[in-house]
Amino acid sequence: MNPLVAGLNRVGARQLDTERIKKDFPILNTKIRGKSLVYLDNAATTQKPIQVVNALSSYYLESNANVHRAIHDLGARATELYEGARERVAGFIGASKPSEIVFTRNATEAVNLVAYAWGRRNVGPGDEIITTPMEHHSNLVPWQQLAGATGARLRFIDLTPDGRLDMESFYRLLNERTRLVAVSQGSNVLGTINPVAEICRAAREAEAVVLVDGAQSVPHMPVNVASLGCDFLAISGHKMLGPTGIGVLYGRADLLEAMDPFLFGGDMISYVHLETAGWNEIPYKFEAGTPNIAGAIGLAAAIDYLEGLGMEQIESHERQLVKLAMHRLGELGYVEMHGPAGDRAGLISFNIKGIHPHDVATVLNEEGVAIRAGHHCAQPLMEWLNVPATNRASFYIYNDEEDVDRMVQAITRVKEFFRHVIV
Ligand code: 7TS
Known about the structure:
binds ligand 7TS; 2 domains; 16% strand; 17 strands; 4-stranded antiparallel sheet
């Protein structure tokens, strides 16, 4: 027997009970083109368990009111739930206090908040911002804008041929002009896990601030801001079983205190006169207007679900699956996979020579297998890979060995469809 398969059976059975988990996700029973759905687009967004949907509906049905303003009991209950969610997030990522947790719409807004509220005040002409060619556009374009507005310069860490950060290149770039290092912990295309703790240590010595894009890591592995030593961390709730429209910016309290607000209006003020206003304390000064109360509550329920499984178990489950999938795709002989061979996150980007990724994804869809095709909002990385687009299969807690089988089988159908072009 294939030792990877044996390993997966042994470890998978002991770690995550996917059969039980799947029961919490009714959407996974959906039929696509008459076939049962295999959902492998988790890096785009994950499915939601009934526990999260129930948390949303019971909030709306039993506790709906605006937060931070009402004297009435319902308002107090909504505020308690919303602030409880903030505490839940703080505990989940090891923040030292809830006030370091700012609720945003998504990871994109969290990065933009830092680019405006921290960047416009702390970055000037001749300063440098270090980032990488593997960033999602969300962690690149805001820095391009900041550099353009302030006269700062973007510097890019080189990648190794297998898609890791070349750390020597990072150490060469880091200098007294570096104000910020903006780096993803997990690449949404290559599956690379970047050594962010090491980057944070070095940046601290150089007195530079580090923003970690945790959109693809926080849902999949234990992440603790204290042990990473990062200054900012951006998270999207919808990529970790939570609702859409809720994200998180973790920021070190002293940095948040010193920053200007990003958006202005209700709830973020301490006083307003006709001509002037003063700002509320953190984190409220960054949460102008009525927030996504239900979204925060749903995110807390998602964290409960994930912690119930265990982040280490989730990480190891995905690693087993991706290892198996890479092995099986490698055996086909016509699938070119991108990114590191081992020690990587639970997703695989690949190309099949001579066939556009959209065609591959279309054939897979016919077979009920949902994968993504495109540039994955990482166009500079597509240039680096020298492809217009890739296919991407991304795994999560409910995926299992059978899902890998179904994907591989569907890819063999692609070969049948396009046999004249595959050599
Ligand atoms: N950072 C990374 C590494 C991401 O993968 C994404 C979204 C974001 C930031 C932005 O997250 P958002 O919730 O603010 O949109 N990535 C993807 C993806 O790979 N496919 O669809 C969205």
